[in-house]
TrEMBL record:
Keyword Transmembrane helix on entry: yes
Protein name per Swiss-Prot or TrEMBL: Dipeptidylpeptidase IV N-terminal domain-containing protein
Lineage: unclassified sequences, metagenomes, ecological metagenomes
TM spans (from-to): 12-32
Pfam families in the record: PD40 (PF07676)
Keyword Zinc-finger: no
Length: 98
């Protein structure tokens, strides 16, 4: 007996995950490679009711590990950034803590 799947993935090296959130989910969050060969993985959303995907984050070195915030209003993700030059010290000055 065939059972419909709740999670559909495209072929590739991605790691599909499906997590339960304490809020109604109306948007799907996903990663996709750009169309150019050198374009890195970027972050998109698409409404579960249909429509076109919206680019959420376009980072020079790509995006990874996206997560919805507990209230579903923000998205957390990782991306590599490189400093132009090596810093003189490894001390970091933190200007703001929430």
């Amino acid at each position: 007996m065939d059972v419909p799947s709740l999670l559909h993935t495209a072929p590739g090296l991605g790691l599909p995950t499906l997590r339960s959130l304490p809020i109604p989910i109306i948007m799907l969050l996903f990663l996709a490679n750009g169309r150019e060969k050198d374009k890195k993985t970027q972050l998109y959303t698409i409404s579960l009711s249909g429509g076109e995907a919206q680019l959420v984050a376009d980072m020079e070195n790509g995006v990874g590990n996206p997560e919805w915030s507990p209230d579903g209003k923000q998205i957390l993700f990782t991306s590599r950034t490189w400093m132009d030059k090596k810093p003189e010290t490894d001390v970091k000055h933190i200007k703001h803590i929430r």
